[in-house]
Write a structure and sequence with these properties.
Number of domains: 1
Oligomer: single chain
Number of strands: 10
Strand content: 25-35%
CATH superfamily: P-loop containing nucleotide triphosphate hydrolases
Bound molecules: adenosine-5'-triphosphate
Strand order of the largest sheet: 6-7-8-3-9-10
Helix content: 25-40%
């Protein structure tokens, strides 16, 4: 198992405001799989993603990536883990406004010794003709493609996506999902995606459903539907 999570618990606050958000989550994702985390609002999806991404710290449990335990690592080791292994994509693209598309991506290119080839990535993501534009000159879909390129340039082994299509209309959402599918095929990137969109579950290898801090259902798709054929996005 490439990503293995065992009995993770996570709470916030103390005394009167204490809330246990993750109540013992155990699951895993194989290398090269696309996986979706579903669940109602407040069920703990983003908390789980943030704990796996070492943006938040669990109370107890184990998170192993490629055989390496990350719970209990020192801050320096955690930042190395984030830099070397992970890519993050969020609903709001978090681009640097006064850098061009190409420069936004370049900033992340230097985080690794083995980046992907910049020009190839610009072509793959349909950004070649937009590379000298600033984020404010791009559509939402183009901005998200730039954010994806920025996360991918360092060739992360695990891509964590929190509502990557949350701010996009259905046509642009489909375009982004087709792109993620292509990246998964082309680079073998393992992906873990939080989404409210119920259609996306049909295109991925694995679905994890969370209810009130626990896994209520998980399964692998026998017959995946290509992103291009998804409806009701
Ligand atoms: N830093 C924090 N401090 C206190 N409570 C928090 C914190 N982060 C999350 N929570 C609480 O934890 C619960 C789960 O939040 P989380 O963001 O993981 O849910 P979610 O399933 O991703 O929800 P949504 O779909 O609405 O984004 C919520 O009740 C939220 O208020």
């Amino acid at each position: 198992m490439y990503l293995e999570v065992k009995d993770i618990k996570k709470s916030y606050g103390a005394d009167g405001s204490y809330i246990q958000v993750l109540k013992g989550i155990s699951t895993g994702v194989e290398k090269g799989e696309m996986c979706v985390i579903q669940g109602t609002s407040g069920s703990g999806k983003s908390t789980l993603l943030n704990c796996i991404g070492a943006l938040d710290v669990v109370d107890s449990g184990s998170i192993c990536i490629d055989g390496k335990e990350i719970v209990g690592l020192k801050p320096q080791e955690l930042s190395e883990y984030r830099r070397e292994t992970l890519g993050f994509i969020f609903q709001f693209y978090n681009l640097v406004p006064n850098l061009t598309v190409r420069e936004n991506i370049e900033v992340c290119q230097y985080l690794t010794n083995e980046p992907l080839e910049m020009d190839e990535l610009l072509h793959t993501l349909g950004l070649w003709e937009h590379q000298d534009k600033f984020p404010s000159q791009l559509s939402g879909g183009q901005q998200q493609r730039c954010a994806i390129a920025r996360a991918l340039i360092k060739n992360p082994k695990l891509l964590l996506l929190d509502e990557p299509t949350g701010a996009l209309d259905s046509v642009t959402s489909k375009e982004i999902l087709i792109l993620l599918e292509k990246i998964n095929r082309q680079y073998g990137t393992t992906m873990l995606m939080v989404t409210h969109n119920n259609s996306i579950k049909d295109m991925v290898h694995k679905v994890i459903r969370i209810k009130d801090g626990r896994i209520s259902k998980e399964y692998r798709n026998e017959n995946r539907i290509p992103a291009a054929q998804l409806e009701d996005l």
